[in-house]
From TrEMBL:
Protein name: Na+-driven multidrug efflux pump
Record bears the keyword Transcription: no
Localization per Swiss-Prot or TrEMBL: Cell membrane
UniProt membrane topology term: Multi-pass membrane protein
First-listed, main subcellular location of the protein, grouped into a coarse class: membrane
Gene Ontology terms: cellular component: plasma membrane
InterPro entries given in the database record: Poly_Biosynth_Transport
Origin: domain of life: Bacteria
Spans through the membrane: 12-31, 43-64, 85-109, 129-147, 159-181, 187-209, 314-339, 345-368, 380-397, 403-424, 436-459, 465-487
KW Cell membrane (keyword) present: yes
Keyword line: Cell membrane, Membrane, Transmembrane, Transmembrane helix
Length: 511
């Protein structure tokens, strides 16, 4: 049983990784065209006003993981009635959340965008219209959340991958329409992104009602005690995720208020790049999350601990493969991607990737923290640090520090949050800290040292030019992959990865 589950985890991870390679190339090309069509100033406005677009992409995904905990727990206990009840309660809850969010967006949110946001006078109306489109996109994502969660809980990652690929190509179609439709580009982009969100939501709903028995509305399964448990769990999870996203958007607004629009554009580019690259490690965690919860529900603690230690290493490694060459050759990569690179974009993006690398090691710890369902102390502790990031950033910027200082603050805070996560997971699940330090943190540090130093040295010695950049990227990829496989992974995980890759290769040969 454990062997089959491990193979399934590895296969899901490879599937999601291949899927994300395709999505990454499509997404990066999309950002380049959007930047060219909107211009630096409008792109900066989009980064400030359109922060809800990032919210609609990130927060519902995090909510789906929170909701997925109850679906995965019921599946782990093999309790069909509990699964149906969890779906009915979650669907009702998210419909209620959508109504509440709509009221907040049309009162507090609208007041801020209409009266407080620093936007050039001739772009005020466009910014206001964009806000309404992004608000509707966010509502659509909230309603879709329980359907996305049920797919993840069933570990149906191939279906999830296909829907995501279709969404990426719809967004690619958006940028082509953006070039030819005669309308204000900023407003048009917001409208088209909303349309993609609506189509994507319809797909999730239709597929889930057709595929999974628990997804139905003919009979409502209700349990008030379960509702209270879900509301408490999800409420604290929402607090933690909102504090993270609000911090990110608040720092963008801080830069908007304190520096020129080109600085905000550079910030938006750095966040875009880091979020796209970070999805590679996040996707592996998506495949890891259900078995961690199911192992806890089945009281299989040693399997759970093994998934955390091995999963944390691989989560970091999947991101490091891409992050290392990008950090070293960021100037050339952004120049090739964007053509005209905004000031500060190179440094901002490098620092954003460092922050993402620190976070990646913690992702399986976050999944483990959710398993017991006791989220108050965990989310309150980490959420407080997130809020502290914005307060500290505001203080250092007010004191005259340069714009990049906000990234330094975030990096230091993420190191602190890693330590807090590890301590709290130990308290919640009795996960041994010494085991994590020995089998996860130490191998990660070794891989960073033995791969970063040679790649940086090679980059410094080689001349400038596209062919030399390609050589550095290839060398980094080869060195990182070989080092991770033979040094970073133990025998068990090497076997899992090898079996998964070979099975995918055989599948492609048959095609």
């Amino acid at each position: 049983m454990t062997s089959d589950r491990n193979k399934r985890i590895a296969k899901n991870a490879v599937m999601l990784y291949i899927r994300q390679l395709l999505i990454l190339f499509v997404s990066l090309y999309t950002v380049r065209i959007v930047l060219a069509e909107l211009g630096v100033e409008d792109y900066g406005i989009y980064g400030a006003v359109g922060g809800l677009v990032a919210l609609s992409a990130f927060l519902p995904g995090s909510l789906a993981q929170a909701t997925q905990r109850f679906f995965s727990f019921a599946l782990g206990e093999r309790n069909d009635d509990q699964l149906k009840t969890a779906f009915s309660v979650n669907l009702a809850m998210y419909l209620s959340v959508a109504v509440i969010v709509f009221v907040i967006l049309q009162t507090v949110g609208r007041w801020f965008v209409y009266t407080q946001l620093a936007v050039p006078v001739d772009r005020i109306q466009a910014a206001r219209t964009l806000y309404q489109y992004t608000a509707l996109a966010f509502l659509t994502s909230v309603i879709t959340t329980p359907f996305r969660a049920i797919i993840m809980a069933h570990e149906d990652m191939k279906l999830y991958a296909y829907i995501s690929i279709l969404e990426a190509f719809m967004k690619l179609g958006v940028v082509f329409l953006l070039q030819y439709l005669p309308y204000d580009k900023l407003q048009l982009y917001g409208l088209l992104v909303l349309c993609v969100g609506v189509v994507n939501a319809m797909l999730y709903v239709a597929i889930c009602f057709n595929r999974y028995e628990e997804c139905q509305i003919k009979k409502i399964y209700w349990n008030t005690a379960l509702l209270r448990e879900i509301v408490g769990f999800t409420g604290w999870t929402v607090f933690g995720q909102i504090s993270n996203v609000a911090r990110t958007h608040a720092v963008t607004l801080l830069l908007n208020q304190s520096f020129a629009p080109v600085v905000v554009a550079a910030r938006a580019i750095s966040v875009q790049v880091a979020s796209k690259v970070n999805i590679f490690s996040s996707n592996f965690n998506v495949s890891l999350y259900p078995p961690i919860i199911k192992s806890y529900a089945a009281n299989e603690r040693q399997d759970m601990f093994s998934l955390i230690t091995g999963g944390s290493k691989i989560t970091f490694f999947l991101l490091w493969i891409l992050a290392l060459p990008m950090i070293v050759e960021m100037n050339a990569i952004l120049g090739l991607w964007l053509g005209d690179v905004p000031p500060h974009a190179v440094l901002f993006t490098q620092l954003s990737l460092v922050e993402a690398l620190i976070l990646s090691v913690s992702l399986p710890l976050t999944a483990a923290a959710r398993a017991p369902g006791k989220m108050k102390t965990y989310e309150l502790s980490l959420g407080s640090i997130q809020i502290g990031i914005f307060i500290t950033a505001w203080m250092v910027v007010s004191a005259g520090a340069p714009a990049y200082s906000v990234f330094i603050v975030a990096i230091l805070a993420n190191i602190l949050m890693f330590g807090v996560r590890l301590y709290l997971v130990n308290r919640l699940t009795e996960f041994p800290i010494s085991i994590f330090l020995r089998y996860t943190v130490l191998p990660v540090l070794v891989i960073v040292l033995i791969t970063a130093a040679p790649v940086v040295l090679i980059q410094k010695l080689l001349p400038q030019g596209l062919q030399w950049t390609a050589l550095v990227v290839f060398t980094s990829f080869l060195l990182s992959t070989v080092s991770m496989y033979f040094i970073g992974l133990d025998k068990t995980w090497r076997s899992k990865v090898a079996c998964s890759v070979l099975s995918r290769f055989s599948m492609f040969q048959r095609i």
